[in-house]
Backbone:
């Protein structure tokens, strides 16, 4: 593996809500993503999800509270917890997901990806 | 779990080479650490290790090459690969390790920790 410079990798794509694989850590993918707008409520029944904001500000809605994440802040969404990410302005994210986790968990629709591009 | 602000957590300790637990992600600990000086050569036979520089510059020596990691750069040390971190000046690190991983892997000496403090 080569080292990953986050800014160099983030410059390689512009699509929103399409995580890109930049590395692997044990049974997880190391992903970079750009969010803008709303995703939708979903959960990953058996997998925690690691979110860290690289740039911008993310509203992570949970059913019982809102979490605002800014640059230099991270949060692990526990397995089974419904969540909806909302980005009023574009947000750049470092995400770790188990390889077994499906993109949008228990909800599958036209925005669901079945695999991630490697950059 | 609460969100983690990296700077707030890094302000809570000053010891070098003593990773602190700030969260859990599946079977991993999410750790913050401050490095200064040299650790020593070691490897984790069965566990990849995730290193990301939050502040400063880390020389990560592998047996076949040197990797310089700066702020905003990450590297996953593959399982079984010998490495030695060297920090000429203090470096602040985000580290992910499987809970099964021992602090200094195959090498145990007076600098080896058997558990990590939670902050």
Residues:
């Amino acid at each position: 593996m080569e080292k990953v410079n986050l800014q160099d990798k983030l410059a390689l794509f512009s699509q929103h809500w399409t995580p890109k694989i930049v590395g692997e850590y044990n049974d997880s993918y190391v992903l970079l993503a750009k969010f803008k707008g709303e995703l939708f409520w979903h959960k990953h029944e058996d997998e925690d999800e690691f979110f860290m904001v690289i740039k911008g500000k993310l509203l992570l809605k949970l059913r019982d509270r809102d979490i605002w994440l800014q640059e230099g802040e991270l949060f692990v969404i526990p397995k089974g917890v419904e969540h909806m990410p909302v980005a009023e302005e574009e947000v750049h994210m470092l995400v770790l997901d188990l390889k077994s986790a499906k993109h949008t968990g228990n909800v599958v629709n036209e925005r669901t990806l079945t695999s991630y591009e490697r950059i």
Notes: The first helix of chain B runs from residue 6 to 10.
